[in-house]
# Entry
Amino acid sequence: MKIIIVGTGYVGLVTGTCFSEVGIDVTCVDIDKQKIENLTKGIIPIYEPGLEPMVLRNMEKGRLHFTTSLKDAIAEGTDVIFSAVGTPPDEDGSADLKYVLGVAREVGQSMNDYILMVTKSTVPVGTAEKVRRVIQEELDKRGVNIPFDVASNPEFLKEGDAVNDFLKPDRIVVGTDSEKAVEIFQRLYKPFTLNGHPVIFMDIPSAEMTKYAANSMLATKISFMNDIANLCEIVGADVNMVRKGIGSDSRIGKKFIYPGIGYGGSCFPKDVKALIKTAEENGYQLRVLKAVEEVNEDQKMVLFKKVKSYFNGDLKGKQICIWGLSFKPQTDDMREAPSIVIINNLLAQGAQVKAYDPVAMHEARHRHFGDKIQYAKDQYDAALDADALLLVTEWAEFKFPNFAVLKKIMRNPAIFDGRNIYDAKEVKESGFDYFCIGIDTTRR
# Structure
């Protein structure tokens, strides 16, 4: 079986590589010449645990190929084309489909045999029909009658664990109206469903909606818990105890109810905005999701406000240590990361920032801050002479710091824990002023 993946971002590269891992011949296509050139040399454009050795292994075995020409890839023959290109938000929050429809147009211009055209990108309801129309329009222009099918196969990959998610999926969602497409998907995904998890077939609009609904539900749980955390702090409750109390209810569950400083990344912010916009375009208001978005934006300011209050509103000249820049551990992705909001506000108040992240330093320097902040060689270098330490991303190496060393090297012993990973009693007994989310530590 031969397939084409268009787009070599998180979704496209992981998808293509994992398919090649089970013996499928995969060609990944991207218009970024430098990215393709690097990939052919084994240089991976993203940080994703386990991905690099898998890419190199399958390239060596001749199952994974890279090119900038979709036309050439189609000419060499394919059964399925997965479109995994970006759908960035427009100014109004709606998903920009120009890349998705651009792929469809080129497929219609280049195909000579039956193709199953699959949208892997997260797209609004109705996109598959737009893709179908564009392909058919191009075939009509050519005056040819070539059969094809379209389908929606949304991804459910967690950055930082994407390879494992693909190889051992909880479920695979497929939207299609074609029996032939169903047969192709069953063959394609058979190696990944031996663990008993299902391929769920449904109509195309439902598949397109499922992805948005899933991400929006997870975002809702996060914002709900952050809202509760803020109230806990005001009334003197301990949000960690509240979390344990509600998480033991099987109807609620323990996942995504950890308080913090807001969600970020490439999916949740964009998908919540896009779903709100889809509703508005159809004359409906998603009031809960609007509140989710509002709470999340406010939550990104919580840690900064705590720091500003601690220094009585005067941050000028203060040296602030930042631990963690990526929006979550196990990725270098900083899109919509709380660290960006926090650092920009600190800089605006005249503070000096020195940051450390295990993998996102390059991303921070070249895409976000340039030389406006200092970049430390390790976590303790970041804390040297600091007036305050802000834990922003809960990387494993930050979870058990040497508090005695920190006490010696920091100018002022103050820790602001944005992920509630430290024990307040231990930190305070080590001689630090300690602040976290959802607990008024001054009362305890």
Remarks:
- The radius of gyration is 24 Å.
- The first strand starts at residue 2 and ends at 6.
- The domain at 212-298 is CATH 3.40.50.720 (Rossmann fold).
- The CA atoms of residues 129 and 267 lie 23 Å apart.
